Amino acid sequence: MTQAGAAVDLLVVGGGINGCAIARDAAGRGLSVTLVERGDLAQGTSSASTKLVHGGLRYLELYEFRLVREALAEREVMLACAPHIIWPLTFVLPHGPGLRPAWMIRLGLFLYDHLARRRKLEGSHVVSLRGGAYGAPLREGYRTGFTYADCWVDDARLVALVAMDARERGARIVTRNGLASARREDGAWRATLDDGETLRARALVNAAGPYVSQVIEQALHVGAHKHARLVKGSHIVTRRLFEGEHAYILQNPDHRIVFAIPYERDFTLIGTTDVPHAGAPGPVAIDETETDYLLSSVAQFFRTLPTRADIVWSYAGLRPLFDDGALDASVVTRDYAFDLDADGPPALSVFGGKITTARRLAEHALDDLSALLPSARGAWTARATLPGGDETFETFLPRLMREKPFLPEQVAHRLARAYGTRALRFLCDARSMTDLGADFGCGLTQAEVDYLLREEWAATPEDILWRRSKLGLHMSAEQQAELARYVGSQKRLCFEPPRTS
Q1: What is the dihedral of CA 453, 42, 66, 147, to 10 degrees?
Q2: What pLDDT is attached to residue 6?
């Protein structure tokens, strides 16, 4: 494993999905890698998504055929590499007067079915919404709809697992310690981190997400030929609005779409918005206008009308889209682009991208750098599983319940989903819940918390409650306070440092 202060082949800036995927790919190609992240892994954009691995049905209207084809193909790859945290999800698209014409939807779904080969996911269908589970929650007037399949993903856990795999292949993953400055010196990048550590790297990748332009201008001081356009996407989580494990894709009169997705057993996730962000990158929050927009979008379709009182949580993030000159934020390309500065040791900056295509983005980035890093081996990630994904959820959950019969069914389900076979690393020889130490609530035990602190870079209660899990939605204030006391007793960093770059 790469040691602190050592010279490395590649320095990656940014601990979101793109940065971690690039670090993983590079480490697997035999390169020495260090990744630095000023906050927690997935603390920004990568934990503020709609939690989908999808082709992007609406991108077909923007003629983004290459992006959609690549994303559709990646669904199958990701299902195979992380079957515990990614699974198929059926989407219902209600149709009625004033929405996109039915012929247009049929054509779009035909392309969606056939642009890339499907092995595990079902094709689209026309369905009746008169009665039955799909139509029951909907208002009168929606008699016909369409169904298609995409995938659900636990986004922040995906980032953590990608980082774990990178580390296990030799990469050094540094959190809570960002890039302060870097300069070209004697044929390499000389980088200084926030804590004063210096290191040398033959090449540098700037995958800082919303901060990509800031890193170029303030840390690297190189020229930029491309620019990021920041768009805020916000979501609300309400009490559960409908039964069943299917989701809805809702067409609004302004031609934007909003998803309503079953979430964490008891809730419904609703999003997202597309709001231009003209200020500096940094933490953002949903505003009243966005909340009204999401509530009114759902109200057009569902019998049960959620109000502000039904909202249990909201979150927002900045998407660093590649600026293609579009006037409307909702039609800015979701494709990715690279800006390679090879005037000396190379610096590659990443613009755009999304969770679904992060593996391919990383593969393309390493292919572009391979001529400058000739010791790198070839691409390898398409068939490699992520930690815990060596057994499907459907086979592992029954095995886990047989081997650990003391686990409450709901707890076993959560552990199998979150960790896959890696859950056995902290369950070990336990023969009862008491063997796992203190229970902080909802089956979150001391053994699991210690594992997250030790193996997954968690350092604060927020890391555990809102990124490594979503138990913050389920645990009481008293339970969360007890967890905070325990994390503090472990002498870990227990505050969220400001994000400035």
Answers
A1: 80
A2: 73
